[in-house]
Design goal:
Blueprint (H helix, E strand, L loop, with lengths): L11 H22 L10 E6 L9 H6 L3 E6 L3 E6 L3 E8 L2 E8 L3 E6 L4 E4 L21 H6 L12 E4 L7
Parallel strand pairs: 7-8
Antiparallel strand pairs: 1-2, 1-6, 3-4, 4-5, 6-7
């Protein structure tokens, strides 16, 4: 008997990633169904790869965030539209209204700090080293303006953060 684990012929890591991204879709879909109103103190930090296939953001944002950016859905967003493959939303950046379309496959993190919940995903694009960028702070995100997005990678405090990071053998 060998101590080595055989390579799986079933792509479990991809299946789990897809299922967890469906959680994001379901949450955003319920917000869309409620007319774009977030219940209670809920608000979301959504981090995504700006160069991922299907991402559609203004050129100025892509220049500022060539690899990854975080948006905040809290008080000032509009036209949330959720589909089976992604979502689009209107946000303001420096008082300039913008529409962003983001496939679920491009999302790398989803956090709801109001209830200490977060999901972290493998990148859906090349494994290239990420470029340095500024933290995104779209207009109207009270917490983002006061201190930035929480560090979702540190979950040793018992929070409900789920990190899925399956190593792929190449």
């Amino acid at each position: 008997m060998s101590d080595e684990t055989p390579d799986s012929l079933i792509p479990y890591d991809e299946i789990v990633q897809e299922a967890l991204r469906a959680v994001v879709g379901r949450v955003l879909g319920s917000v869309e169904e409620s007319g774009g109103t977030l219940p209670g103190g809920h608000h979301f930090y959504i981090t995504f790869k700006t160069a991922a296939p299907g991402v559609d953001i203004p050129a100025s944002l892509h220049e500022r965030f060539p690899d990854e950016m975080t948006i905040v859905l809290q008080n000032k967003f509009w036209d949330l539209n959720v589909t089976d493959t992604g979502f689009s939303v209107g946000l303001s950046f420096n008082q300039i209204p913008s529409k962003l379309s983001i496939p679920f496959a491009a999302i790398t993190a989803f956090v709801d700090p109001a209830v200490d919940f977060g999901l972290q995903f493998q990148a859906a694009v090349d494994d290239a080293e990420p470029a340095e960028h500024e933290d995104a702070e779209n207009d109207g995100s009270g917490e983002a303006e006061q201190g930035g997005a929480p560090d979702i990678a540190q979950s040793e405090d018992g929070s409900n953060v789920v990190t899925v990071d399956f190593g792929r053998k190449k």
